[in-house]
Amino acid sequence: MKKSAQTILRPDAFYTIAAANGRVLEVADFNTENGASVRLWSYEGQPWQQWQFVEAGEDEYRIKNRFTGKVMDLAMSGVSNGTWVHQWSQTSGAGQRWQVVEAGGGRVKLRNVLADKVMDLVDMRVENGAQAQIWQDVSGENQLWKLDPVPERLLEKNIAPPPAKAAKAPAKGARAAKGTRTQTTKKSGGKSARRTSKNK
């Protein structure tokens, strides 16, 4: 097991990444495509809200989504304040590597190796749909996260697409339907759509 200060991360475990109000980071609309945004949402025990910390170097990790198999990444490899966090297929890029920094009180900061900035929420929002981004470390409450292991009983269930009632029929040629949630952030549909947002 790897240890970062008092935070011990098991390589075979999955975690929720929770803000101070208990809402967690998830892949928006259970989207499996590259470029799907990472946002805050109420925890529902779903696999797209669960993350694995995969060793990527000394005290560095890729943060991999249980449902999609893709990792947290910086849009367009941006390093400026306000760059959105989304998911992407694993590469060797430093924009997909994160350090877990002890922040006291059982909470941590997630520092991106490429940008040397930390996981943050756009406009310091904490409601459902708040978009994850990176920002310089300002010791803000919205930059602190609690990593909680997902109970074994939830991991024993097979991963399956969301129930039909949570989805609507996709448009012709579309990948999959969105859920019934109100989408408050845009998703990138492909590499050319990666962008840096400066909405803080």
Automatic annotation (TrEMBL):
Low complexity compositional bias, start-end: 165-182
Stretches assigned to the Ricin B lectin domain: 11-148
Return the SMART domains for the record.
Answer: RICIN
Q: From start to end residue, where is composition biased (Basic residues)?
A: 188-200
Q: Where does the chain cross the membrane?
A: none
The superkingdom of the source organism is: Bacteria
- Residue ranges for the region (Disordered) are 156-200
Q: What is this protein called?
A: RICIN domain-containing protein
List the taxonomic lineage: Bacteria, Bacillati, Bacillota, Clostridia, Eubacteriales
